[in-house]
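Researcher: Quick test of sequence recovery. Tokens follow.
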């Protein structure tokens, strides 16, 4: 199958990846209500078609946090991407740099921040607040020294969400013997992935935190260490500690409520990502796109406002911009593309998003993404 859309990359990734890894990236928490809402609520928003306008010149670039983005899109942090393609985070970083958009490296990426920075472009760096503040300080210093321009501080994970798919697939909750047998069968039945990732994509650790995990042989050992070290005591005051160790823009990720957004402004954040962690944390909460307008009304002029969750096309990007986002971040789409065909597929996916955004702009009469507003939507 030749991929034409994000859903096509998803299908190709499903065929190529071992079940445990496909279900891990594809699934959400509990009954996956919020995961479904993220996509469905974006689909339900109608664009307002306008005609007979001069759309010769389109302006897609935006300035944000001291950077110029060629289009208002970024690659969200995705954990364990190096298990979907050989050294997956580096492939995604190169694809993002080629497209002129930011790549955000997850704390729990297989590739370390040093390895990703060695591609030539230092990534935005995503941070979880862990109990081991000494290691966090060291991690921030490493990212800072490598030139990471933005810190994305994820605040909606004081405890991992329960994901039923991971239990059913055997990724979590299985004995070591069960897990070994599952992985062996997955390897036999997915020879392309086995050759690309299992054989040639090592080491399979969480690169940025590998030194902190003394007893870790499998990726799941590292994930278990991370889960034990999430800090439930974190409050907005802890942002002061982060700022003491980071002298560049801080973006708070994982806010759905306007009052929390106001707290982020009061705490001194330079940016905010309206996000429900891709439906992977608290199930039953609202979609990111439905939360965006009230947050934009509350704090849109006080910081840079972004969103992620359910964005699957350039049309979705324009809808997010129209409701107040400066740019939209995509997580699963690039992970699907990585799993389907590596860096070339991610590049093609981003080209498709750019082309879709151009069509949406032309047929809504929007010459410049910076001018996108609610007048582009049919809200009646």
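Model:
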């Amino acid at each position: 199958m030749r991929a034409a859309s994000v859903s096509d990359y998803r299908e190709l990734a499903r065929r190529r990846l071992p079940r445990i890894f496909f279900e891990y990236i594809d699934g959400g928490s509990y009954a996956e209500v919020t995961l479904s809402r993220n996509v469905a609520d974006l689909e339900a928003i109608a664009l307002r078609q306008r005609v007979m306008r001069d759309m010769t010149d389109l302006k897609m670039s935006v300035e944000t946090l001291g950077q110029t983005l060629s289009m208002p899109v970024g690659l969200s942090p995705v954990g364990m991407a190096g298990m979907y393609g050989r050294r997956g985070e580096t492939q995604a970083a190169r694809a993002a740099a080629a497209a002129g958009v930011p790549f955000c490296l997850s704390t729990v990426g297989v590739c370390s921040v040093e390895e990703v920075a060695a591609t030539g472009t230092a990534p935005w760096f995503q941070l979880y607040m862990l109990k081991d503040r000494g290691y966090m300080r060291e991690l921030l210093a490493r990212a800072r020294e490598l030139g990471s321009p933005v810190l994305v501080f994820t605040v909606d994970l004081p405890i991992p969400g329960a994901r039923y798919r991971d239990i059913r697939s055997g990724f979590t909750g299985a004995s070591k013997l069960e897990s070994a047998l599952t992985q062996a069968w997955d390897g036999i039945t997915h020879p392309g992935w086995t050759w690309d990732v299992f054989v040639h994509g090592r080491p399979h650790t969480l690169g940025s935190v590998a030194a902190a995990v003394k007893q870790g042989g499998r990726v799941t050992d590292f994930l278990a260490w991370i889960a034990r070290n999430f800090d439930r005591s974190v409050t907005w005051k802890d942002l002061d500690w982060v700022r003491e160790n980071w002298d560049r823009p801080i973006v708070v990720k994982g806010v759905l409520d306007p009052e929390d957004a106001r707290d982020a402004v009061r705490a001194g954040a330079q940016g905010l990502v309206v996000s429900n962690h891709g439906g992977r944390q608290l199930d039953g909460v609202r979609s990111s796109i439905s939360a965006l307008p009230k947050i934009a009304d509350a704090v849109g002029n006080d910081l840079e406002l972004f969103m992620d969750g359910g964005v699957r096309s350039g049309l979705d990007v324009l809808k997010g911009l129209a409701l107040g986002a400066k740019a939209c971040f995509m997580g699963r789409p690039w992970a699907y593309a990585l799993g389907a065909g590596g860096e070339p597929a991610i590049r093609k996916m981003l080209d498709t998003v750019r082309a879709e955004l151009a069509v949406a702009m032309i047929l809504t009469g929007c010459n410049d993404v910076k001018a996108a507003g609610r007048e582009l939507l049919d809200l009646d």
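The longest helix spans residues 332-364.
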